[in-house]
Automatic annotation (TrEMBL):
Transmembrane segments: none annotated. The keyword Lyase does not apply. Keywords: ATP-binding, Helicase, Hydrolase, Nucleotide-binding. Residues 1-32 are annotated as: Disordered. GO terms for molecular function: 5'-3' DNA helicase activity; ATP binding; hydrolase activity. This is AAA domain-containing protein. Residues 32-288 form the DNA2/NAM7 helicase-like C-terminal domain. The keyword Glycosyltransferase does not apply. Residues 16-32 have a biased composition (Low complexity).
């Protein structure tokens, strides 16, 4: 199921007049409007906390670790049987399975070939907590993941429209949700969208149930087996502010035809609020147009700050690419 609810979880979101206060810092204001940053964070994992704290004066001391069961659950995803699939939806599903299975292998220190390692290693030894060595903790926490989306079309050549691109982005998102729900049905999922058109596209993709064929493709999978599915909240970033979920999928991709929207996407507070909703894992879907914008876009100081923050995420994330044939989706 999916819902749209803002949900509040005791954060200090009233600190700023901006629609995007940096509530990941859990700061508090005094009567003289002096902002005091609290460094203990009970939402973020060590690697998420280390990333988010790059824009604050003091580093966070995360009080939460990634449960080993997440890695073990995702590691039970069967090896793909759809590599020769002719349906574009099955190809997208194949990618989602391999991507999440690859993440589990990384967490469990097993070999994998589907994801590229981060340019910057953000994994540090956190010896301050004995809990890090308990049997319930993943031996290799991994909370930042990046998918670079390419949309292709023979009909539209190099001019894929924004609406078609968004529907492809939504199809990839729906496939990721289907696999997560199958193997981690108790974990809630947020889909954070900058625009309402993206929210509508993801909801439509979920309702279309293109990926309900999972149970037919894999004997081990039982999407209709009576297990309670996790709640999927698909909403704009503003409405998700103050909430949290185990998995957060952030949609920050654009086609070449719509790069005029870059300044809106590359707003640091918007990026920070979206990414910092995650308790266990943040998967960011982006595109070359956003990750490598024209130099002229970065002449605006605020946009440059947002891009620096986005690149900091990309440099710390395990990543993979996916190409979606717009024509084959029959949109």
């Amino acid at each position: 199921m999916y819902v749209s609810r803002p949900g509040q979880v005791g954060s200090s979101d009233t600190r700023s007049s901006s629609p995007f206060p940096d509530d990941a810092s859990d700061g508090a204001s005094s009567s003289q409007s002096t902002i005091v940053q609290l460094t203990e964070n009970f939402r973020l994992n060590p690697d998420l906390g280390e990333f988010v704290s790059t824009i604050y004066s003091k580093a966070f001391r995360p009080q939460k670790v990634q449960a080993r069961r997440i890695a073990l659950a995702l590691s039970s995803i069967p090896q793909s049987k759809t590599s020769q699939a002719t349906s574009e939806y099955l190809k997208i599903l194949d990618f989602a399975q391999r991507f999440l299975l690859g993440l589990s292998h990384i967490m469990l220190k097993r070999p994998q070939r589907d994801l590229s390692p981060p340019l910057l290693s953000n994994l540090k030894e956190h010896t301050h907590s004995n809990d890090l060595y308990s049997s319930d903790v993943a031996p290799h926490p991994l909370s930042l993941a990046l998918i670079q989306l390419y949309t292709i079309s023979r009909k539209h050549r190099d001019n894929v429209g924004y609406e078609l691109h968004v529907k492809a982005e939504a199809a990839v998102t729906a496939a990721l949700i289907a696999v997560i729900q199958e193997y981690l049905p108790g974990e809630d999922i947020f889909v954070a969208t900058p625009h309402r058109i993206q929210r509508q596209a993801v909801r439509a993709a979920l309702l279309a149930q293109h990926f309900e064929t999972l149970s037919e493709l894999f004997d081990e999978m039982t999407l209709d087996g009576g297990k309670k599915k996790s709640t999927v909240t698909v909403d704009t970033i503003e409405r998700l502010q103050g909430s949290e979920a185990a998995f957060v999928i952030c949609l920050f991709s654009l086609p070449q035809s719509h790069i005029t929207d870059l300044q809106f996407l590359l707003e640091r507070r918007r990026l920070n609020v979206a990414i910092s909703r995650a308790k266990s894992m943040c998967i960011l879907i982006s595109s070359n147009e956003v990750l490598r914008p024209a130099v002229g876009v970065l002449t605006d100081g605020e946009t440059a700050k947002g891009y620096t923050f986005l690149r900091a995420f990309a440099d710390r994330a395990w990543s993979s690419n996916v190409s979606v044939d717009i024509d084959a989706l029959n949109l």
